[in-house]
Amino acid sequence: MKWLSANWHQIPALIGDHMTLCVPAILLSILIAVPIGRLAHRHRLVGGPLLGFAALLYAIPALPLLIVIPVVFGIPLRSMATMVVALTVYGVALLVRTAADAFAAVDRDVHDAALAVGHSPTSVFWRVDLPLAVPVLVSGIRVMTVSTVSLVTIGALIGQSGLGVLLTDGFQRGIAAEVATGVILTVVVALLLDAVVIGLGRIATPWIRAGRAGRRQAVPS
Amino acid sequence: MTRRTLMAPVLALIVAMGALAGCSSQNPLSGPTTSALTTIVVGSQDYYSNEIIAEIYAQALEGAGYTVDRQFRIGQREVYLPEIEAGGIDLFPEYTGPLLQYWEPDTTARLGDDVYAELSRVVPAGLHVLDQAAATDQDSYVVTRDFADQWGLTTIADLAKVTTPMVMGANSEAENRPNGPTGLLDTYGVSVGFTPIEDGGGPLTVKALQDGQIQLAIIYTADPSIAADDLVSLTDTKGLFLSSHVVPLASDKIDAAAAAVIDAVSAAMSPDDLIALNARSVTDQLPAATIASDWLAAKNLS
Amino acid sequence: MTYLKGALAWLVDPAHWGGAGGIWVRLGQHLLTTALVVGVAALISLPVGIIVGHTRRGSSAVGAIAGAARAVPTLGLLTLFALALGIGLTGPVMALVVLAIPSALAGAYAGIQAVDPAIGEAARAMGMSEARIVWQVEIPLGAPVIIGGIRAATLQVVATATLAAYVADNGLGRYLFIGLKTRDYAQMLAGALLVIALALILEAVLAALQRVVRTHVTAPGTARRTQTHT
Q1: Which residues of B touch A88 (CB under 8 A)?
Q2: Which of A138, B48, B186, B230 sits at a 20 to 30 Å CA gap from A56?
Q3: Which pLDDT tens digit goes with each residue over B92-131?
Q4: Which residues of chain C make contact with A56, given a CB cutoff of 8 A?
Q5: What is the ipTM of this complex?
Q6: Is B17 exposed, middle or buried (0-12, 13-18, 19+ CB in 10 A)?
């Protein structure tokens, strides 16, 4: 623990850098994966190949992806944008299938009933399909969030600061405590963001709690 | 089509973030200083020893009244050199040999002054190297004390006496480079196997050496583990390795006054200093900032 | 696009395919490492997932462990194992097993738990032992989802097994590291394409397996109906 007592003051900044990279990537992944998941659910013919393709994005090894992205987008290799794009590619790959499943889990009858009572298709999407898809969607977003936080560490390989720096630096200097600190803090940050996702999911689905509370009251103790 | 729909929002966001990043990097509080530069950007490799030297440069410049923007731990040469060449970084601690080989892969220069002279010649326009330090950090072939005693090894040429198969451990790029098995065979006529260990002669390489998984390793001469783990660095009698002194690579934005500050640092940095700086990082596990300020104070440079 | 052309040129060069460091050998090593990792991960996570899914006890603990395991950076774990164990395949394999466990565990657990409890009750009423219920009812019914978990784990491991080359002379990752370090991006991209191709093949094989299991094990006789439902 010699390392920790001499270097602890670097840690808050590293956590900050880590968050700066993963939060935009997580939000972007959701923004991109949810419409694609919806599209895949609505149009099965496109959906199958689309989901297969998305899953395969996950098979791209990280190092080449980080080199190719700057070439494709014309951005500098050592930039936040390169990392965010790479993380978003993996995030989308992880999330689309669950997004499609989430819309598939919405009761067809509820959807049709909403249309029947005169809601426009857009309104049905925003007021019925999306809210009802939230529970399954949240489960997928949780997995994606945790994986993204973990993946940010590879940024250290292209000079992007974050908790990954503790892994590469600790490795070179042979300080296991530094590497272990990096691993543990990554897990802690991931679990904290996971808790945030769970919390937001609860806020977005007030009827679930209301339902539970209602049932609890109805059952005599 | 799906690709386009996927990429369009990403692109939009990148543009937005790029704009944001552009705004934030210009600190409105840093007023103009006496020099032509308001802020000197100092970079470093993703290598703890290099980061310490960069931190020394940064603190020395700050001591002389400059404002410094630290861009440390920016990966390897292939990542940061394009950025330096593009003018994004003003000062970077480098090593004469490897830097010369980057721009001039087939160079035949080997000795300190030859390498420095040729390096000064091939540096691209807009960049220049300041004075080189006495401190060196160059590749060397290292064996364990036991292995050296067993076969009576002091020079690389002595490896020819070894009759059992040998395996060399080093970063993967060494496999086909002049400093790896190919160069050893061409220059010394010794043939060895190869195992990649991607830690640049770090702790894993040392452990593999001690465990007998490899017999020969490429380890930097300034690595404190050579002394700490009682390893033997074999003398290079035929000039296989390029001399590799610490040298500041500077953009033309570094003016004479700033260059004088850095030259004073380079003049004070001896080979033993560099090993001691590295040892403080590896053994005492101190942060680069502490190691740098202690060294500057000890040299009366702060 | 010049990179891509270079990568394809690198791939069609027959000199790169044979020999000790050739593509065939590295592909074989990569496949073996992947199989070993997924095999070990399956041995650990399938029994745990199936028991938890069957008893419906400890599911929150399993969920928390799987979530935390997903958050562990493979690069860091690999480094720690390597510092402790030295070079060679043991460190990378252990780190990759940790990577593969969450998906495999989640699949096993979800597959068993999704089986309608009424079916288990019915089997119990018929006098079937718990072990027989698991083996003859729940595993066959949950098999497609269980294999889905293995499939996801395999995909992750194939891509990440490239990191094994960090500390061992093994697998397709060697092309990535050499390419990166020597700025031979054509070679690096070629290595990436090989990894993706291997992933595609494994995906196809496991998807086919999933389909076969679904039609012949999970729902023999009702195959057509099940398929239209999913």
Answers
A1: 10
A2: A138
A3: 999 999 999 889 988 888 888 999 999 999 999 999 999 9
A4: 155, 196, 199-200, 203
A5: 0.82
A6: middle
